[in-house]
Amino acid sequence: MSSDLVLITGGSGLIGIKTIRFALEAGYSVRAAAINPGPRLTFVTVPDMLADGAYDEAVKGAKYIMHIASGTIHGDDSENDYDARFIQPALKGTLGIIDSAFNTTSVKRVIITSSEVGIIHLGGGGFRQKEVDTIFDDTYEAEYPAPPYHHPFEAYAAGKKRALAATKDFVKEKKPLFDIIHIMPAFVVGQNELVTDPKIIADATVRAAFAQVLGEDSGWGAIPSTSVHVWDVANLHVKALDPKIEGNQSFLAVSEGARGTAWSDAVEIVNRNFPGAVKNGILPNTGLTPTKRTKVDASRTERVFGVKFLSYEEQLKSVATQYLTLLGQPIA
């Protein structure tokens, strides 16, 4: 029943805050971290998600868990921080919460926010991998790259791959009473309700699309041609609670089909949808984000969940509208 309790980690992030909202709108009761409580929203503190038994109290009474908490790339990440920022949160954080779920009898399903990089092979250089003609789908498997890592995205990918492999091993060895579904988003772009300062509008993966609109460089070089609207990612998490969706599967969340996202299309999209803001210099729209062709087929996700992923244009419009609103400027 939709009134069942859902534990959501990572509630203070781009995906988490939207997922909390969608879960509440669907009628679920939500227990979340780092968010203000409400009538059907309770607050739980997990001081250190890497500590042994960190989630033991949090999972009690929950029928479902959405584990969204993870390290996020911001663009100023130091190589010295890669293990603590990306590897351990992905690996120990994931194993910790499913181990806590294993020690209770109430949990029936765990939804884990993985990433497309959990199954896509990037090669040894992060974004510097060669373009290939392989069409990646959710049946693809790739070994995680061994350290040292020289790019934050490379370390992030290694963490996601290791967490995915460890979770599969956990299910195989312990045969828990609950099942697990992995949601694997591409670069997530869209309005972030938690951003109230326009100066940080292009934080995390939103930077891939919006830095160029602000006349800036993302600092990431050529970016794989995969994006997805945050609305779609949150929607998938909530829809995945439906028992009609078979468990122990992985689902990619990538828009625009195998063609993918051409990041530099942002310039034309913004010129067409916000000509006034461009003319007035509020949206300089003078940057250029190069694209590295990466073919990903997420059509099975659309079929199973009965959805159609929103376009790159809708992703950009969402962020630009929020930015102009925060500045008190007309949406034009």
Describe the secondary structure blueprint for this structure:
Blueprint (H helix, E strand, L loop, with lengths): L4 E5 L4 H12 L3 E4 L8 E3 L20 E4 L14 H21 L6 E5 L21 E2 L15 H23 L4 E7 L1 E3 L16 H5 L12 E2 L2 E3 H10 L9 E5 L11 H9 L1 H5 L11 E2 L2 E2 L2 H7 L6 H16 L5
Parallel strand pairs: 1-2, 1-4, 2-3, 4-5, 5-7, 6-13, 7-11, 8-10, 9-12
Helix pairs in contact: 1-5, 2-3, 6-9
Brief overview, please?
With 332 residues, this protein is α/β, with parallel strands linked by helices.
Give structural notes.
The protein is of the alpha/beta class and 332 residues long. The chain is 33% helix and 14% strand. The chain contains 9 helices and 13 strands. The strands form 4 sheets. It has a 7-stranded parallel β-sheet, with helices on both faces. Helix 1 crosses helix 5 (230-239) and helix 2 (82-102) runs parallel beside helix 3 (152-174). The termini are far apart.
